[in-house]
């Protein structure tokens, strides 16, 4: 990696931290320049626009998510073990030092759900990609006969997503110290409801 790329990587690492706290809309070339002690013109030369900066932040955030959630899950056996690992890592990934304000995608989704444009399009693409991966994890658990063959994969993924959204609400806004424990309990109950009876512990 050349010096220019190293500098850009350092800038984006800081931008992800800022965006996790202030949101993508709160992230501007000017505010980021102030955070880094750099010139606004120097940063503008690297990104050209606020939208390009926001998309680059989402790209880096996506890689963080893959490293902290997707890759650990893929190292486990296909089926319930992989699905459970994905859920656990999804609960904990936003506690990394890179995300002092929590889940970048959760805050970005609420900011851009009604804002048409290239940033929303990119954000939507990243979330659909993760949704497809999670659907495959559920399907794998059906194929290994650990989940009932009659379950609706889309519905189950939506229910899992709902547990994550609820966890973030209770954990960050309400500061409920038991939020993660309750999310895990709800997830385990969801799994048990959808298992074959003869596969229950």
Commentary on this structure:
Helices cover 72% and strands 0% of the residues. With 201 residues, the protein is mainly α. It is elongated and about 65 Å long. It contains 9 helices and no strands. The mean pLDDT is 92. α5 (80-92) packs antiparallel against α7 (118-143), α6 (104-112) crosses α7 and α7 crosses α8.
Concise description?
The chain is mostly helical and 201 residues long. It has helices spanning 3-22, 29-36, 40-47, 50-74, 80-92, 104-112, 118-143, 153-173, 179-193.
Rg from alpha-carbon coordinates: 19 Å
Could you tell me the mean pLDDT?
A: 92
Distance between the termini: 51 Å
Instruction: Give the ordered list of helices and strands.
Output: HHHHHHHHH
Number of β-strand runs = 0
The proportion of strand residues reads under 5%
- Figure out the total of helices: 9
Question: Based on helices, strands and strand pairing, what is the structural class?
Answer: mainly alpha
Shape: elongated
Identify the notable features of this structure and list them briefly.
201 residues, mainly alpha, 9 helices
Which helices and strands occur, and which strands form pairs?
Layout (H helix, E strand, L loop, with lengths): L2 H20 L6 H8 L3 H8 L2 H25 L5 H13 L11 H9 L5 H26 L9 H21 L5 H15 L8
Helix pairs in contact: 1-4, 2-3, 4-5, 4-7, 5-7, 6-7, 7-8, 8-9
């Amino acid at each position: 990696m050349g010096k220019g790329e190293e500098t850009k990587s350092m800038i984006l690492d800081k931008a992800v931290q800022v965006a996790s706290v202030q949101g993508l809309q709160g992230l501007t070339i000017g505010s980021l320049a102030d955070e880094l002690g750099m010139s606004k013109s120097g940063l503008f030369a690297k990104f050209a626009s606020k939208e390009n900066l926001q998309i680059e932040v989402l790209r880096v955030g996506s890689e963080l998510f893959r490293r902290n959630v997707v890759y650990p899950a893929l190292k486990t056996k296909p089926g319930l073990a992989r699905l459970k690992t994905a859920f656990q890592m999804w609960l904990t990934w936003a506690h990394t030092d890179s995300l002092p304000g929590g889940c970048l995608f959760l805050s970005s989704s609420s900011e851009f759900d009604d804002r048409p444009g290239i940033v929303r399009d990119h954000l939507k693409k990243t979330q659909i990609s993760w949704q497809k991966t999670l659907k495959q994890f559920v399907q794998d658990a059906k194929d290994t006969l650990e989940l009932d063959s009659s379950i609706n994969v889309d519905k189950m993924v939506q229910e899992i997503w709902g547990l994550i959204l609820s966890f973030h609400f209770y954990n960050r806004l309400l500061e409920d110290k038991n939020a993660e424990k309750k999310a895990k309990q709800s997830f385990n109950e969801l799994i048990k409801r959808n298992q074959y009876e003869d596969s229950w512990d």
